[in-house]
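Work Package 4 report. The design task specified in the project plan requires that, given a folded chain encoded as structure tokens, an amino acid be chosen for each position. We show below one input record used in the internal validation round.
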């Protein structure tokens, strides 16, 4: 998911440099949303992740 965020951010930067402001804003918004989803999922997996103990 972080890879998609970076991809959308790069596309937004390229679009902004080329003058496509509407597209740049849209891609930046998508990148922002994906980044927040990534952070939430990372925090959840950090606290609820496996403890490394085996059940043998």
């Amino acid at each position: 998911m972080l890879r998609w965020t970076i991809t959308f951010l790069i596309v937004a930067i390229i679009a902004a440099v080329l003058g496509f402001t509407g597209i740049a804003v849209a891609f930046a918004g998508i990148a922002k949303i994906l980044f927040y989803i990534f952070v939430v999922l990372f925090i959840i997996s950090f606290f609820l992740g496996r403890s490394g103990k085996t059940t043998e």
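The chain has a mean pLDDT of 82. Validation will be extended to a larger panel in the next phase.
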